[in-house]
Amino acid sequence: MISTVLVEHPWMTTVGLVALVVLGPVVGAWLMPRPQIARVLLALSILAVALLAFVPTGRELAVGCTMEWSVPTLGAVELMGNVILFVPVVLLAGVVTRRPLVMLLAASGASVLVEAVQAFATVLGRSCSSNDWLANTLGACLGAVLAVIALRLARSGRHRHPV
Known about the structure:
By secondary structure, the protein is mainly α.
């Protein structure tokens, strides 16, 4: 369903990625003094990942996982979709916990679990791929970098404008 939309409109992944890179640190810094809003947005981003990863597709697949390694490019909409999927999760989790590196590691581990469930829960009709894990982890890395920038922006803004 989402893959079909992305294939029909491949520009969406590029626009989404640029929007996350440009707006992510600013929004993250704005969320620092607003932890309840940040937690709600984090929960919604985790829910989006869960829905995209676990809603059954109606296909029947064999148990197993495809081992492939491709670096995502702007033209590879499905891989870029997997990159973008984890950026907001780690950005928001890094802002909420103030531990972007720990959230990066947690997200990469969560992606392994997602792929394992997809490999063995054939009733979902989801395919397991090492490419998905790699793309999710690259997105988590970007989210962690954006969280670090957001934390620094928030810190520098606090020093300039004492409350």
